[in-house]
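Students often ask why inverse folding is considered easier than folding. One informal answer: many sequences map to the same fold, so there is more than one right answer. In these notes we will look at a single instance of the problem. The structure comes first.
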């Protein structure tokens, strides 16, 4: 991080240093546009639309650009660049090996998880990260490589760096059950803060897009903004790990926490909103921690005999703010516990996360990880659901042959055949072929029934009717840009068909 002298005149050197860093980032962005922003939306785009292919330049340009941005005062975190760099390495390995697009996606996710675990020593959070944001599946074929990658990376971290947590606590955290309602208040505040952080960032991005200046100049303008803020509050500059450590240990006074809270939030908005290179976790951690500590300080005055630890409220505030703000709930909970060693606060973290998510769901339809894709016309659905055609076997839905009817063998049957224990999904490829109206179900080479297209249709309709029974949620008015909901596992080759099918369905719903 750039040093700031005590002499007011010497402090002004921060401004040209930050501007020079922004110029370097602009040059790198010309060579590799994927480095813009915090990187997760670009990784998602590669997974969804480019079969998990990331160019070799991204693996080199992203860490360099992020190091330059943070080293010259940029108020960003290192986790986004680390994740993109690891994902790029995993993708490159997947492009060298003869693997499928799905296997390449897992390699990309394993690289991202290994990067996160290797730097932060958070193996559990690193395994959760791909499941919440990248791989779009819950399977053993994804879990096992992720476990191996994060275990090896964390082991190397402990060997080369040490076993101390990133933000060590100088006290033993505790949260008696009687204090849980107080942590629910933190959850409520964190939910409101997450909404403010997202909407504020989106507003700043919109403002930059409307400026009558070339797009390449936006990072330079953003650098000027956060450098000027840094002159007043130097703690808002760079990653600010020292400030997070002080906050979770309750070392800040109320005024200091409030100043850092405001300065870091606005400097992060200006920096990331200008589309420069940097991460989101550290800034959201610091803002959330300052908010939590301020609430904790307030509770110590309201309940002087309750032995309240302001640092514990800061820890919960930072984990929850990032988790719900980025729609990575479990990552926020587990990461906050692992980087501090505060596992005794898992219960308050979970409770506060639930309260905060209820708040955010009422307001935000898109969050920081997906807003860029939404503006390009696509809405990513992270909710993975069980395929209803793999919840039933063929024998459970078939029309059985009457016992007194003629029983034929599979060899003499003219219809396609599946075993009675096969998934209903196994019959679908045959039923999609022209001229095939049914599939024979066999048991020990004897035909015992038939599965038709009506059976498949009935299973799908049953799942849809079940999903209709959900609690109502409030949403903001739709933006003028129409977003298409594309399933997360849609490949490039089927993307246009999915869009066309949704357009046809929309026309059918609106037709009088």
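Output (designed amino acids):
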């Amino acid at each position: 991080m750039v040093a700031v002298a005590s002499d007011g005149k010497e402090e002004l050197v921060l401004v040209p240093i930050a501007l020079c860093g922004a110029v370097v980032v602009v040059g790198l962005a010309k060579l590799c546009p994927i480095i813009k922003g915090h990187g997760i939306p670009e990784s998602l785009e590669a997974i969804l639309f480019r079969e998990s292919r990331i160019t070799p330049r991204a693996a080199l340009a992203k860490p360099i650009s992020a190091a330059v941005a943070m080293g010259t005062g940029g108020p960003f975190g290192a986790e986004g660049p680390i994740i993109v760099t690891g994902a790029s390495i995993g993708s490159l390995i997947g492009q060298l090996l003869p693997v499928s697009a799905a296997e390449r996606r897992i390699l990309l996710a394993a690289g991202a998880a290994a990067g996160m675990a290797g730097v932060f020593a958070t193996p559990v959070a690193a395994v959760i990260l791909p499941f919440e944001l990248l791989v779009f599946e819950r399977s053993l074929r994804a879990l096992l490589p992720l476990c191996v990658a994060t275990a090896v990376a964390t082991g190397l971290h402990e060997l080369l760096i040490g076993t101390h947590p990133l933000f060590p606590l100088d006290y033993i955290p505790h949260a008696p059950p009687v204090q849980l309602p107080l942590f629910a208040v933190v959850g409520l505040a964190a939910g409101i803060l997450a909404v403010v952080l997202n909407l504020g960032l989106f507003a700043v991005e919109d403002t930059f897009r409307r400026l009558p200046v070339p797009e390449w100049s936006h990072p330079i303008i953003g650098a000027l903004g956060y450098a000027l803020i840094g002159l007043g509050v130097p703690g808002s500059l760079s990653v600010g790990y020292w400030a997070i450590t002080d906050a979770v240990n309750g070392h800040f006074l109320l005024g200091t926490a409030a100043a850092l809270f405001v300065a870091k939030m606005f400097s992060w908005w200006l920096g990331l909103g200008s589309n420069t290179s940097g991460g989101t976790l550290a800034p959201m951690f610091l803002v959330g921690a300052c908010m939590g500590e301020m609430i904790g300080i307030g509770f110590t005055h309201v309940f002087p005999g309750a032995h309240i630890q302001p640092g514990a409220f800061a820890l919960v505030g930072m984990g929850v703010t990032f988790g719900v703000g980025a729609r990575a709930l479990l990552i926020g909970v587990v990461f906050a516990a692992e980087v501090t060693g505060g596992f005794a606060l898992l219960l308050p973290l979970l409770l506060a996360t639930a309260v905060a998510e209820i708040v955010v769901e009422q307001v935000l339809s898109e969050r920081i990880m997906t807003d860029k894709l939404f503006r390009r016309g696509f809405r990513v659905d992270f909710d993975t659901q069980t395929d209803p055609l793999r919840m039933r076997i063929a024998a459970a839905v078939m029309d059985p042959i009457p016992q007194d009817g003629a029983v034929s063998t599979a060899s003499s049957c003219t219809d396609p055949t599946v075993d009675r224990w096969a998934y209903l999904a196994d019959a679908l490829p045959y039923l999609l072929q022209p001229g095939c109206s049914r599939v024979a179900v066999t048991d020990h080479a004897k035909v015992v029934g038939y599965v038709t297209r009506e059976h498949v249709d009935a299973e799908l309709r049953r799942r849809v009717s079940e999903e209709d029974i959900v609690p109502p949620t409030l949403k903001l008015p739709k933006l003028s840009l129409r977003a298409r909901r594309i399933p997360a596992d849609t490949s490039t080759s089927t993307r246009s068909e999915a869009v066309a099918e949704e357009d046809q369905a929309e026309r059918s719903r609106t037709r009088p």
